Amino acid sequence: MNTLEQLRSGQLIGAKRLQLVEHLSTFPDEIFTLADTLEVLDLSNNNLSDLPDEFACLTKLKRVFLSFNQFVHIPPVLAKCPALIMIAFKGNQISKFAEHCLPITTQWLILTDNQLEQLPESFGELTQLRKLALAGNQLTTLPNSMQQCQALELVRLSANNLTHIDDWLFELPKLSWLAFAGNDFNRAQSLHNVALAKVQLGEFSLIEQIGEGASGIIHLANWQGQEVALKLFKGAITSDGYPLDEVNCCLQAGVHSNLIKVLAYIDNPAQLGLVMELINKDYQNLGLPPSLETCTRDTFAEHTQFTAQAIKHIAKQMVSTLAHLHANNVSHGDVYAHNTMINNACTVLFGDFGAATNLDSLTDYQRLQMQRIEVRAIGCLIDDLLSVCADDTSDKTQLITLARQCMNANITQRPTFASLKHDLTL
């Protein structure tokens, strides 16, 4: 975190990164003294509503964070920024998205939790776009030009007002992580098909917080004489969508040996929650989330290393789990190493249904395409794990081949879950 005082005194000359949280209502001109070096600018959590025309003189700027401000439009000056690849406007009040107001270099666009009713037809110009977050808006349709965004890998469309999704979205050649729960055509109104016990929050004695995600806080709790993990959802909407849709997908997923076991649920107007089996402390996250540099691909702690045999064992369990989910008409939407837990024997536990989608409302063709999208995510997962594999074995050669097949740009040529499971047993 930096200060205006540091900036004005010249202490930050030559800085590549700048973060200011100072209740700003106007853009500080002093930022332009960093024009020759500034690459990352974070002015989130202020009161800004516009950017000056001079903003384009920040010619080295790659990433700008303007989340949780007062913007009602996307400033067109952004289109003049030659190096800009990442733009974040989460949690503003943006309702105006003019034609041609973003640079064609944009790779990562975050517009979560705004008031957008439509995207411009010029959106298709963003052919380098890889990551797109639009959950929590008021979109009723997507522009047909968006099918030109052939580099898209991750798309978040949950909690909008979409009445349907066109086939072309499911046919984007690099799409691997797609979420669209909570729209007009598939939004859950209540919990359904619930075979588990409904319980009350008062039945639990909370011990301590043990985790937190986009949608909720996980507590270690005592319930009926046993320790459990209790996930309490934060509110009406999260960065991935509505909690009710997440809970429904989690319950619809059913039981599988590699899914974190759900024991019961809480459902009342004031609080949604899931009661889950406590994960043994032997388990740890398989990987770390993507970085600003990797954009869509996971990272790993320094010195992480897996054998090809271990990766193969992990992949086989993940394929089995995803096959089970899709058999129950649920897509996970977030198949990543950082959402996967393993123990020393590389036994997998998989969970976090924040980006999951109920596929019941899709056509047979679209459900098949969703499977192919998540097969590509498996390919990315294997490929990421191979980046920390030092082996030179036949197993590694096979995994390289399988990853390439899963990521085939010709979607219809990708393997099925069944064929992957078979190949991974060889």
UniProtKB/TrEMBL annotation:
SUPFAM superfamilies: L domain-like (SSF52058), Protein kinase-like (PK-like) (SSF56112)
Residue runs in coiled coils: none
Family annotation (PROSITE patterns): LRR (PS51450), PROTEIN_KINASE_ATP (PS00107), PROTEIN_KINASE_DOM (PS50011)
InterPro entries given in the database record: Kinase-like_dom_sf, Leu-rich_rpt, Leu-rich_rpt_typical-subtyp, LRR_dom_sf, LRR_domain-containing, Prot_kinase_dom, Protein_kinase_ATP_BS
Keyword Cell division in annotation: no
Domain annotation Protein kinase: ranges: 204-426
Family annotation (Pfam families): LRR_8, Pkinase
Protein name: Serine/threonine-protein kinase
The species this protein was found in: Pseudoalteromonas prydzensis
Lineage: Bacteria, Pseudomonadati, Pseudomonadota, Gammaproteobacteria, Alteromonadales
